[in-house]
Amino acid sequence: MMRKLLNDNRGFTLTEILVAAGVMLVIMAGVMSLYLGSQRTARVETDFADVQDNLRLALDQLTKDVRMAGFLVVGEPITDTSGTAFTLRTTSPFRRYARITVPDASTAGTKTFTVYSDSMVQRFRPGDKVRIIRPPNQEQPGEGVVGAALVFDVSAIDADVPSISLSGFSVGTDYAYAAGDMIVRVTEGAPVVSEIRYQFNPNPANSLARIVNGGVPQVLARNLTDVTFEYVLNDADEVQTVSVVLTGATSPEPDPNNNIPRRTRTVRTNIAVRNI
């Protein structure tokens, strides 16, 4: 019996080959269909996660800025309001400031100030540009003195004391600093009061932009389908709360025949203005 089987040299018929090939094609088509579907779903899920991350980061930046609106500012904290844009005014666009508790009364070119806490010290780095501003407005001690410098460099920090050392003072000038004055980080050449503009741009990418003092726009989020700002005013007609709604969408799926819809994500919050 075994010898008979070993001597059987017959092959497959054409019909058997065609049937086997057909079965394999059906199996491969099913596998490819599952693979492509999974790939499209994974791409959409990735896009959706990116949308959520963009919205969350944009809302976080916007919230921090609105809370600093009106900081050491005379006048309205938020102006030029509309449903898709507004401008906030602050002396601290970086949100880095420290309250002086013991001023340096010397008239040297470098001064060391004791500040309220070590956490305030850690907001600064050597080389930062700063101004010293007196609450409750943007008055700068020394601004009435001819030739007195008003922008200084952080030369050293000490979180243990805690203290911040500044250089660049006009030697021999008595700035008459007092406890409660604020050290505020600024940009070289920037005005005392900075303006930060939030604006929805339908073109080119349906983006939310942050623009500081009319400079280059910083895009915080793209592929937005809706941006809405609403405002609650106080008795002095100043904005005291900004209501924000941001809606983002995943990128359109390139295959028009797929059945995976474009997904959207909406975030909303109410942000209180603290400095009014």
Blueprint of the fold:
Blueprint: H1 2-6, H2 14-68, E1 78-79, E2 85-90, E3 97-102, E4 110-115, H3 118-121, E5 129-133, E6 152-158, E7 163-167, E8 182-186, E9 194-201, E10 207-212, E11 218-221, E12 224-233, E13 239-249, E14 264-272
Antiparallel strand pairs: 1-2, 2-9, 3-4, 3-8, 4-7, 5-6, 5-8, 6-7, 9-10, 10-11, 12-13, 13-14
Taking the sheet with the most strands, its summary is:
6 strands, antiparallel, barrel
User: How many helical elements?
Assistant: 3
Low-confidence stretches: none
Overall outline: elongated
How are the strands of the biggest sheet laid out side by side? 3-4-7-6-5-8
Kindly name the structural category: alpha+beta
Q: Quick check: average pLDDT?
A: 87
Tell me the distance between the termini: 102 Å
Strand portion: 25-35%
Number of strands: 14
How large, in whole angstroms, is the Cα Rg? 32 Å
What series of H and E elements makes up the topology? HHEEEEHEEEEEEEEEE
Q: Percent helix among the residues?
A: 10-25%
How many structural domains?
2
In short:
The chain is α+β, with helices and mostly antiparallel strands.
Model description:
The chain has 2 domains: about 45-90 and about 190-270, no CATH class; about 95-185, Beta Barrel (Elongation Factor Tu (Ef-tu), domain 3). It is about 25% helix and about 35% strand. The protein contains 3 helices and 14 strands. The strands form 3 sheets. A 6-stranded antiparallel β-barrel has the order 3-4-7-6-5-8. It has a 5-stranded antiparallel sheet with strand order 1-2-9-10-11, covered by helices on one side.
